[in-house]
Amino acid sequence: MTEYTISDYLLDVIKTMGGDEILGVPGDYNLQFLDHITHRNDMKWVGNANELNASYMADGYAREKGFATFVTTFGVGELSAINGLSGSIAEHVPVLEIVGAPTNGVQRAGKLVHHTFGDSNFDRFIKAHETLGIKTTVLDEDNAIDQINETLTYIANEKKPAYLVLPSDLVNAPVNPAVKEGISALFTTTKQEAPASIAAIKQATAKASHPVIVVGHEIDRFNLGQAVQDFSLNNNIPIVDLGLGKAAVDESFTNFVGTYNGTISNESINHFVADADVVFVLGAKLTDSVTGGFTQEFDESQTITLSTRRGTIFGQSLPADFDFVATIQGLATTDLNLSLPAVQKPAEPAALQASDQPLTQSFYDRALQDFITGNKTLIAEQGTSFFGLASQNLASGAKFFGQPLWGSIGYAFPAAIGAQLANPDRRAVLTTGEGSLQLTIQDFGLALKERLNPVLFIIENTGYTVERVIHGMDEPYNDVPKYRYDLIAPAFGASDDQYDFIEVSTEAELIAAMKKADQETDKMVIVQANMGMKDAPAQLIETGIRFEAQNH
Question: What is the pTM of this model?
């Protein structure tokens, strides 16, 4: 591999975007490409237990670092990963999947090769990704450099995933090394402005007396949290975030009043939205699981919506210069001249006091809130973890990852490992139910092999609590096998000095475990938190009622 090749160029662009590690699973159609990764001294191959985990892990890596890449083989590998990549497009996460494919000669000849349906059709998997709305690119030798540039700049600019097919006969195809000189220019952008859109927003809000800002996930993806805070501060407008978008703004910010979830929000938060005459919905999707089952108390007639998909004022489109990023950045320095009073934040809850009482979900959620300091990233599995913790305000600098829209159980564990790999200087803290963990537990081995040191809270409450509160509280389909979590780390190859396992059943035991975890920064810390089968966060119970009604 002395010549500069298509593979080398692709990896140089990935490296420029921050891809220091590449995830995935080897397969014979991608092995030659993997050689180009492992033979570099500035990039690392991190092999997953399966492709689904690779896609979840890449999603967590990208949320932490801004971009991720994983590699699969044709057919069997990419179909295993398609669930995770679908979650990335649903929740706007910039991930690149590279698929190693049979040679062009094999495909043109229609040979009945492995990992296909044996029908000479090599396009069906590409079409499956296209149908899901994922950007797809099949490299060809004559246009590969332009195709790579277009695909990777799409990811950088749109913050969405893409799927790139690399036929194995192109892996070592030579290209002029001079093409490397243009890589940095690919990601140089010209700042746009949207003066007409800003003027239209000022005019529409001239008589607003109770505005509120609702923040969604796109604010996080485009790093616009500070711009939203500046807009809020300049105009004394209260901010709420959604569970899909939690911590996109600093939740200790003076004008931040809480996380909104429709009418099932705490009333001290809900009234800011319910009483609003103008609602700025910024970078958000108003999905069922973050609006209390579509119970948000505002409609198009009072909403200014700014997102990557559209910009509207009370249902009417913004002027032609509307651009999501430019408009949000423009609002950061905009004075609406409203003369509003200072925002009165809801009162802080009383300090948590631990006792020897059995551990409950409500105590657990408050304790996790206190445990998540500014140098930590909290990854919450969909279910009791997400719904219990999304309503808890986080410390300045803390991050929060969840998947409330796609909601694929098992996501959070590999996503947490991906986040920890992406930024070893931040402690990843996972909270997951034992049912969800069982879907993706295989990559404990990867985490231990890479000597990663997250804190993993496993809620042991006898099954799928999120499903129980929706339907079938006592039905056997919501039961799961009971694992010995104390044996997981050694079973996956951990040495005694590499991990700590702590089982807790009381409030005091949980607090003690958290203090110990903070001291053991050089170890993976696994905490089994035992709770009652029917113990669930109040917002999850309310959401379950709405989901059950919605399913009839």
Answer: 0.95
